[in-house]
Design brief:
The complex is a heterodimer of chains A (347) and B (287). Chain A is globular, with a radius of gyration of 21 Å. Chain A has 16 helices and 2 strands. In chain A, strands 1-2 form a two-stranded antiparallel ribbon. The longest helix of chain A is centred in the middle third of the chain and has 27 residues. The C terminus of chain A is likely disordered. Chain B has a domain of 199 residues. In chain B, 73% of the residues lie in helices and 3% in strands. A two-stranded antiparallel sheet of chain B has the order 1-2. In chain B, a hairpin with a 2-residue loop joins strand 1 and strand 2. Chain B is globular. The chains are: A mainly alpha (347), B mainly alpha (287).
C-alpha cells in the first residue's frame, strides 16, 4: 500500500503522465478531443501561475484572467496590426506580462488580504474596460481576427491541431517543471512562509515586498504566456477573454485539483474541462454547478483532490511512524515526506 | 452653472445608491471580516424580485420594493447560515472564494430562469420637477430622499435600539461582545438580513432609471468595494461619504472628462488613493 502511494507521488508517475499525454493523440482519432485537451493544457498553464501567487504565496489574485487577456492581446495586436511573426510577439507577451505584473504588483502588494483581493478584482475590471473601450488599440468589442499562428520554420504546421497539441504540451511540461523547481527551492519555502504568516516570515528576515512581487511577476508571466498561446490556437479574441468568469474558472480548477500542490492545477483543469465536455449543455450554465461546488469544496475539502490525498497520506504516515522508527529511521530528506509534513502542518 | 448643478444632482443620485449598497457591505465586513462578493448578486436578485412583483403580480411599486427587501434579506440570511457560518474559523481566502461561488451561482440561476435580456421597471413617478431652472426627474428625487431616509433609519436603529447596539458592539470588539453575553449567531443573521434588505431597496430605487439584467451587480459591487476601501472597511459614515465621493466624481468626470471612460474613474481613483495612502482615506491604524 505504501509503495502504491509513493508511486503515485513519485517522479515515475509524472513521467507516466507525460507519456500518456504524448500518446493521447495517437490513440484517439477524434481531432476535437485533441483540441479540447490542448485548450485545457493552456488553461492549466495559467492556473499554474495562479497557484504560485495564490497557492504558494497565499495572496488571492483576482486579476489573473486580466493578465491572460493581456498576453493574448499583445500577441494579437503585434501580429495583426504590426505584422510581427508569432514567436517574437509571444516573447513580447511574456515580457509585457512581467513588466505590467511588476507595476501592478508594486502597488497592489502593499495591501494585505481582503484589500489585495478587492484591489486586484478592480485591476481585472480596469483591464476589461480598457480592452473593451480603447478601440484604437484593441479594436474594442469587435475583437481581433486572423491572428498569426506559431511558425514551424518549415518543419511543422502549427495550424494543425496535433502539432499544436504537442507545442502546448511542451510548454505545460516546462511550466510544471519550473513550478516544481520553485516549490522545492528556498524561494518556494519563502513563499509558503509568507502564506502561513506575514509576521512570521518577516521575523525570519524575509523581505515580504520583494518576494511577494516576485511571486506575482512569475504568476503574471505564466498567465500572459498562456494567453499568448491561446491567441495562437484560437486565432480570434475579444474583450470577453478578460471577463471575470475566466478568473473564477481558474479558481475552480485550482480548488478542485488542490491549491498549493504541484499536480493539483493540472488535475483540476482536466477534471472540470472533461466534466463540462461530458455535459455539453452545462457549458453555458456551468456556474450553477461550479458555484455550489466551490462553496462545498472550501467548506469540506479546502485542499482539493491532491491536497486531501496528501493530508490522508500524512495522517497515515503519522500513524505508522512509531512502528517504523523501531524498524528503521524514517528518511526525512525525501522530498515527498517533506511535502507530507507540509500537508500535515496545513491540515 | 446650471449644467454643473445638474451634474451635482446626478452625482447625489448615484452616490446615494452606491452608499446604500456599500453600507450593507461594510456592515457585514465589520461583523464577520468577510468581503462579501455575493453582495452584488443580492442587489441583482433584489431588482428581479422587484420587477416580477410589479409585472407578474401587478403590485404597487412600493409593495414590490418591500417584497424585494424581504426576499433578499431571507436569501442573505440563508447564505450566512449555509456558507459563512461554517467557514467562520477558516483561513480568510476560503470565505472569499465561497462568496464568489454564491455570486456565480445566483447569477447563473437568474440567467437560466429569466434569460440575459435587459428589462426595465416602469417608474410610477414620471413627472419632471423644475426647481429654479434645474430639471429633476421625480424618480431621482425619490432615490435621494429614499436613500437618505433609509440611512437615517439605520443610524437610529444602530444607536437607539438594543439589537442595533449589539451589532455595533460586535463590530467594535468581538471578544468583548461575547463577554457581555451577545449572541454571535443572532447578530450575524441580523447583519446579513439588513445588508440584503439595503441592497434590494437600492436596486429597487435605481432600477427605474437603469436596466435590470443578470450582470447588473458587477459594477455596483466593485464600486461599493472601492467606496468601503476609501471610507475604511467597517466604517458606516465612511461608506456614506465614500459613496458620495464616487457618485460625484463619476457624474462630474463622466460629463467633463469622458463619458466612455466614466466607469473607470472610480477604479482609477482607488488606484491613485491606495498608491499614496494604502490604508484608505479614513481608516485609523490597521489595514
Amino acid at each position: 500500500m505504501n509503495r502504491a502511494i509513493d508511486f503515485l507521488l513519485g517522479s515515475t508517475m509524472r513521467w507516466l503522465l507525460l507519456a500518456l499525454a504524448v500518446v493521447f493523440p495517437l490513440v484517439t482519432d477524434n481531432e476535437y478531443h485533441i483540441y479540447v485537451m490542448a485548450l485545457a493544457f493552456i488553461w492549466a498553464i495559467a492556473v499554474y501561475g495562479m497557484n504560485i501567487i495564490t497557492g504558494y504565496c497565499g495572496q488571492l489574485n483576482l486579476a489573473h484572467g486580466g493578465f491572460f487577456a493581456i498576453g493574448a492581446y499583445v500577441v494579437a495586436i503585434l501580429t495583426v496590426d504590426h505584422g510581427w511573426p508569432f514567436w517574437p510577439a509571444f516573447a513580447a507577451a511574456g515580457l509585457f506580462g512581467a513588466v505590467f505584473g511588476f507595476v501592478v504588483g508594486i502597488v497592489s502588494l502593499r495591501l494585505k488580504e481582503h484589500y489585495f483581493a478587492i484591489f486586484t478584482l478592480c485591476v481585472g475590471y480596469i483591464i476589461y474596460l480598457m480592452i473593451d473601450k480603447w478601440e484604437a488599440l484593441t479594436h474594442g468589442s469587435l475583437g481581433i481576427i486572423n491572428i498569426a499562428p506559431p511558425e514551424g520554420f518549415g518543419l511543422v504546421d502549427f495550424t494543425q491541431t496535433i502539432p499544436f497539441y504537442y507545442l502546448v504540451l511542451a510548454f505545460l511540461a516546462l511550466a510544471i517543471w519550473l513550478t516544481r523547481r520553485i516549490s522545492e527551492s528556498l524561494l518556494g519555502r519563502t513563499f509558503r512562509a509568507i502564506r502561513i504568516s506575514d509576521d512570521l516570515a518577516q521575523s525570519l528576515g524575509i523581505n515580504l515586498m520583494r518576494n511577494k512581487v516576485l511571486a506575482f511577476v512569475i504568476s503574471t508571466v505564466y498567465a500572459a504566456a498562456a494567453g499568448g498561446l491561446y491567441a495562437g490556437v484560437v486565432r480570434f479574441i475579444g474583450p470577453e477573454e478578460a471577463n471575470f468568469i475566466h478568473t473564477f474558472d481558474m479558481i475552480a480548477y485550482l480548488l478542485v485539483g488542490g491549491i498549493g500542490t504541484l499536480m493539483g492545477p493540472l488535475l483540476g483543469t482536466l477534471v472540470i474541462t472533461w466534466l463540462t465536455q461530458a455535459v455539453q449543455s452545462l457549458e453555458e450554465y456551468r456556474m450553477i454547478v461550479f458555484g455550489p461546488m466551490l462553496v462545498l469544496l472550501v467548506i469540506f475539502f479546502p485542499r482539493g483532490i491532491v491536497g486531501s490525498f496528501l493530508t490522508w497520506r500524512g495522517r497515515r504516515m503519522a500513524r505508522q511512524a512509531p512502528r517504523k522508527t523501531r524498524e528503521s529511521r524514517v528518511d526525512t530528506t525525501d522530498s515527498n515526506s517533506a511535502d507530507a509534513t507540509e500537508a500535515r502542518n496545513n491540515a | 452653472m446650471d449644467l454643473f448643478l445638474q451634474q451635482v444632482l446626478n452625482g447625489l443620485t448615484l452616490g446615494s445608491i452606491y452608499g446604500l449598497v456599500a453600507l450593507g457591505l461594510t456592515l457585514v465586513y465589520g461583523i464577520l471580516h468577510v468581503p462579501n462578493f455575493a453582495h452584488g448578486a443580492l442587489y441583482m436578485v433584489g431588482a428581479y424580485v422587484c420587477y416580477f412583483t410589479m409585472s407578474d403580480l401587478g403590485l404597487n411599486y412600493w409593495v414590490a420594493i418591500a417584497a424585494a427587501a424581504v426576499v433578499v434579506a431571507a436569501l442573505s440570511v440563508i447564505c450566512e447560515r449555509l456558507v459563512f457560518h461554517p467557514l467562520r474559523h477558516a483561513p480568510p481566502i476560503h470565505d472569499k472564494i465561497a462568496a464568489i461561488g454564491i455570486l456565480l451561482f445566483l447569477e447563473a440561476v437568474v440567467q437560466m430562469y429569466w434569460g440575459a435580456d435587459f428589462r426595465r421597471i416602469a417608474s410610477p413617478y414620471n413627472q419632471i420637477l423644475d426647481i429654479g431652472g434645474l430639471t429633476l426627474p421625480a424618480q431621482r428625487l425619490l432615490i435621494i430622499v429614499g436613500a437618505f431616509s433609509l440611512m437615517g433609519a439605520l443610524h437610529l436603529y444602530l444607536k437607539k435600539t438594543m439589537t442595533g447596539a449589539t451589532i455595533v458592539a460586535m463590530a467594535q470588539n468581538r471578544e468583548g461582545a461575547f463577554l457581555v453575553g451577545i449572541d454571535a449567531n443572532r447578530v450575524a443573521m441580523m447583519t446579513f438580513a439588513i445588508a440584503g434588505a439595503l441592497a434590494a431597496v437600492a436596486a429597487g430605487l435605481f432600477a427605474p432609471i437603469n436596466l435590470v439584467y443578470p450582470a447588473m451587480g458587477h459594477l455596483v459591487l466593485l464600486k461599493a468595494f472601492v467606496i468601503i476601501i476609501l471610507g475604511g472597511m467597517g466604517s458606516i459614515p465612511g461608506a456614506i461619504i465614500g459613496g458620495l465621493i464616487i457618485g460625484f466624481s463619476e457624474a462630474l468626470g463622466g460629463f467633463y472628462l469622458s463619458s466612455t471612460y466614466k466607469d473607470v474613474i472610480a477604479f482609477v481613483l482607488l488606484v491613485v488613493i491606495l498608491s499614496i495612502k494604502p490604508t484608505g482615506l479614513f481608516t485609523k491604524g490597521v489595514r
